[in-house]
Amino acid sequence: MRLNIENDFITLEVQANALRKYQESQLRFYGYEIRNDVYFLKSNNIQSDISKVINYLNQENINYQLTPNVQSLLSDFFDVKEAQNKLFRKAKDVKNGNINKGSFTEFTIFLDSLPRKLKPHQVKAAYHLYSIKNGANFSVPGSGKTSVVISVYEKLRIEGKCNLIFVVGPPSCFQPWQNEFQETLGRKIETVILSGGNRSLRKEEYFQNSDNISELYLTTFQTMMNDYQDVRKLLRQRGVNCFFVVDEAHYMKQVGGTWANSLLQVADCTTFRCVLTGTPMPKSYVDIFNLFDFLWYDYSPLNEEDKIQIRLLEKKGKNDAVKIILDEKIGSLFYRVRKKDLGLKPAVFHPPIKIKMNFYEHRIYKMVLSKIHELSKDDFIENEEVLSRLWRGRMIRLRQLVSYPRLLLKSIEKYDEELIDKNSELIEIIRNYDNLEQTGKLDFLFKKVKELNSRKQKVLIWSNFIGTLELLKKHFIKHNLRCELIYGKTPVKRNNSTNIKDEMTREEIRNVFVDPMSGLDILIANPAACAESISLHKTCFHAIYYDLSYNCAQYLQSLDRIHRVGGSENNTANYYFLQYENSIDEDIRQNLDRKAQKMYNIIEQDYEVYNLDLFEDMEQDDIAAYKRLFK
DSSP letter at 610? Predict the structure, then answer.
């Protein structure tokens, strides 16, 4: 039997009847086809497929010969693999504290020369990344992952090993990356934002020659999916040595997904790679595959057999066995800082502030609640899909009512149930609500914000509904209190010179708000737009939750906006929750507390799967709450 490589094909020349039936079946299972006693496979990964078939032939004691080009390929492969294994062993030593003192001392001397002094846990994370070059940082939100990466990039840049950093992430990460460069390195860098807008204008940036490249490129997952071929052209130029970073990398979790595939296509054009996320396995152990395939695109530490085994073990619920495989294969390749390692002052969660509804909002709430109880009696006549839409819609209506009654006038997608008769007196009360009273929550909020402002304290106010956000801003402005609003409609800065003249971008609002001398002391925000990546912890220590949703992921992310490394070591973060008596507010808060505690316990462990997705399963949260309360 002769094993050969021809272009992208692996061929096995077999004498007639040399293989048994089950051996032929195994080769076909691997994807081999047969023609004239020659088995052939078109391979996308020659090294991996060659190793697989050789292992099988050895296992079956089948004699074979290797052609010179196969021998050369395997020699190169084993050389690279040995170099990789040596690097992995070094990373394991670093992670376990077995550090080369001379190398570590030289590295820390460099870090001490930077304007921003890293915390002890950041120094260890940075040295691990510097040692392995292609690393993952799975530290909790607020631990300072961005500063760690920038410090390592600067060290490699000074050594002449890279000259630009390319970041892919959600739009909300753009401004933090720019701010962190300035604060960590003490120098401004030329930045290009490649996101949205006219694709032909973006092409001009991709086709810059290496003499005119910028030092920091920022783009989104969506833009990368559309432009990855152009990104390859930019990064493959002679003289371009790229440090490529995927921020909030849990967004590339879907195996075979278009976002993940576009990043994998770019991996071979980069010099160093890094992935950052506090939630590496939000749904399944399979979520980890893309992260390490990207980091080690040519020789992934998780081979196909490992992945198949992990899938099967997870399906059977044998999670402990999965953790053993992961620890052996990737345990040394990531660094993780837990919340307890950050040295932050404990946050203060003030007891829920019980508020009585004012007259009209209470009347509306009671009427709608009564109608929902009445409707729920007939739910058995509908099918499951219809019921899910009805239950979700009813829960949204209740959440709207504990926020701002006029929200009932807004339609809800896929939900058209009438909870209040259009010709009733009550609907007129809702339409004219602002002329009749203001909500009990707004009465309290206004007094609380005034009290905090009198003590020179900035305040962050959270609400989940656009109508409520706009109501709050209008109310504060009416009383001559300066405030700004960040929600879905607030523009994101897309390039270095925005064309938006009449409206501040999210980045501009954030920068003004964190400035202690700006006079902007009230920020109103929506968790869906502001819960991720935006840091406010250096000057804002008070967050008020005007209303809550059942989405625990957004809730946890929002907490971290004012409780992070770089400010919370010396300042106490305070959280206040406005809650109507005898309302759905109580169930939401209790449910969030249970889920948050469970998630925090899980997050403190290395290999745990947990549902922590900002945008998925929001509908299921409302439906589960409806069943709990009404069924």
Answer: -
Q: In whole angstroms, what is the distance from residue 628 CA to residue 622 CA? A: 10
Distance CA 195, CA 224 (A): 9
Q: How far apart are CA 40 and CA 46, in angstroms?
A: 12
Taking only the tens place, the pLDDT of each residue in 259-318 is 888 998 999 899 999 999 887 766 778 888 889 999 988 778 888 888 999 999 989 989
Q: Are strands 65-66 and 242-246 parallel, antiparallel or unpaired?
A: unpaired
Residue-wise burial string across 406-436, b where 16 or more C-beta atoms lie within 10 A, e elsewhere: bbbeeebeeeeeebbeeeeebbebbeebeee
What letters, b where the CB count within 10 A reaches 16 and e where it falls short, cover 88-102?
A: bebbbebbeeebeee
CA 533 to chain CA centroid, Å, is 9
Residue labelled with tokens 């294994």 = 85
Alpha helix locations (H) across 402-505?
A: 425-431, 433-436, 440-454, 466-478
Residues 6 or more apart from 316 whose CB is under 8 A from it?
Answer: none
| Contact in structure between 523 and 483 (CB atoms under 8 Å) | yes
Report if pTM > 0.85: no
- Report the alpha-carbon distance of residue 424 to residue 405 in Å, rounded: 15
Helix H or strand E segment including 459: strand 458-462
The CA–CA distances, whole Å, from 602 to 64, 269, 595, 599 equal 50, 36, 11, 5
* Residue written as token pair 């040596």: 86
How far is it, in rounded angstroms, from Cα 185 to Cα 194? 23
Distance CA 568, CA 19 (A): 68
Report the relative pairing of strands 38-42 and 33-35 from DSSP bridges.
antiparallel
In this structure, how many other beta carbons lie within 10 angstroms of the beta carbon of residue 564?
Answer: 22
| Number of Cα atoms under 13 Å in the Cβ half of residue 485 | 21
In the predicted structure, residue 496 carries a pLDDT above the cut 50: no
Q: Which two tokens stand for residue 504?
A: 């501040």
Integer Cα distance of 231 and 168 in angstroms? 11
